[in-house]
C-alpha cells in the first residue's frame, strides 16, 4: 500500500500547449495566406481564425485523451480530470488553469478492470475488448465502475511521458484489490 503523501501519477495534466499550438497554427496559416495574397489581409485574418478554431475546437478535443488526461491514485482514492463531453474538453483547452480533479473514494469502486490493448488482465466485471495498439507504446486502460458510472483512465504512460512498467500496474492492482475487501 502507498502512504498518504505518496501517489502514483499517470498521463499529463493539460496545459496551455494545445491552446498555444492552435494560436501558432492560426498565425502560420495567416502568414502563408498574406504572403500568397498580399492585397487580401481580410482573407488572411479569416483563414488564420478558421485554422485556429478548427485546431482548438475539433482536432485537439478529439485527440485530448491520447496526449493528456492526467490522474493519480492515492491511499484515499482516485483523482482525475473529467473530460467526458466535448464541451468539457474545449473548456480544458481554453481554460486549463480552471481544471479541477474529480475524486473517487476507493470504497465507492464497485468493479475495475485493466485492459492491455489485447487482453483483459483483471476484472470483476468484463467491460471492453480488443483495442488497437498505438505504434509507440502498449495501451493500458483502467476502467473503474462506480454507482455514478464508468470512468476510463489511461494507464499507458506516467506524467513524465514514460511508459508505465508492469510493476506500477501491479501496484495499482494491489491498491484496488485491497480496497475492495
Offer a quick outline of the entry.
Keywords: Membrane, Transmembrane, Transmembrane helix. It is built from four helices and eight strands, in the order βααββαβββββα.
Judged by helices, strands and strand pairing, the structural class is alpha+beta
Number of strands: 8
Give the N-to-C terminal Cα separation.
14 Å
| Helix coverage percent | 25-40%
Main beta sheet, described?
A: 4 strands, antiparallel
| Cα radius of gyration in angstroms | 20 Å
Low-confidence stretches: 119-135
Strand ordering within the main sheet? 1-2-3-4
Strand content: 15-25%
Element pattern in H and E: EHHEEHEEEEEH
The CATH architecture name of the largest domain reads: Roll
Transmembrane segments: 19-37, 43-62
Keywords: Membrane, Transmembrane, Transmembrane helix
What does this entry look like structurally?
The protein is α+β, with helices and mostly antiparallel strands. The chain folds into 2 domains: 8-13 and 69-179, PH-domain like (Roll), CATH 2.30.29; 17-65, no CATH class. 39% of the residues lie in helices and 20% in strands. It has 4 helices and 8 strands, in the order βααββαβββββα. The chain has helices at 17-36, 41-67, 86-94, 166-179, and strands at 8-10, 71-73, 77-81, 101-105, 111-115, 120-123, 141-146, 149-154. The chain has a 4-stranded antiparallel sheet, with no helix packed on it. A 4-stranded antiparallel sheet has the order 6-5-7-8, with no helix packed on it. A hairpin with a 2-residue loop joins strand 7 (141-146) and strand 8. Helix 2 crosses helix 3. The longest helix is centred in the first third of the chain and has 27 residues, at 41-67. It starts with 7 loop residues before the first strand and ends with a helix. Residues 119-135 have low confidence and may be disordered. Keywords: Membrane, Transmembrane, Transmembrane helix. The chain crosses the membrane at residues 19-37, 43-62.
Amino acid at each position: 500500500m502507498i502512504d498518504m503523501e505518496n501517489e502514483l501519477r499517470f498521463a499529463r495534466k493539460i496545459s496551455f500547449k494545445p491552446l498555444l499550438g492552435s494560436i501558432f497554427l492560426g498565425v502560420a496559416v495567416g502568414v502563408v495566406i498574406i504572403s500568397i495574397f498580399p492585397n487580401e489581409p481580410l482573407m488572411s485574418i479569416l483563414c488564420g481564425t478558421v485554422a485556429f478554431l478548427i485546431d482548438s475546437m475539433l482536432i485537439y478535443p478529439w485527440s485530448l485523451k491520447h496526449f493528456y488526461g492526467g490522474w493519480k491514485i492515492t491511499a484515499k482514492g482516485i483523482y482525475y480530470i473529467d473530460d467526458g463531453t466535448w464541451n468539457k474538453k474545449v473548456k480544458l483547452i481554453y481554460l486549463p488553469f480552471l481544471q479541477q480533479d474529480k475524486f473517487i473514494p476507493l470504497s465507492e469502486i464497485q468493479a475495475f478492470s485493466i485492459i492491455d490493448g489485447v487482453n483483459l488482465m483483471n476484472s470483476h466485471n468484463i467491460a471492453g475488448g480488443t483495442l488497437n495498439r498505438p505504434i509507440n507504446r502498449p495501451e493500458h486502460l483502467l476502467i473503474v465502475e462506480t454507482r455514478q458510472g464508468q470512468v476510463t483512465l489511461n494507464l499507458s504512460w506516467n506524467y513524465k511521458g514514460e511508459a508505465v512498467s508492469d510493476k506500477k500496474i501491479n501496484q495499482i492492482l494491489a491498491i484496488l484489490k485491497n480496497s475492495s475487501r
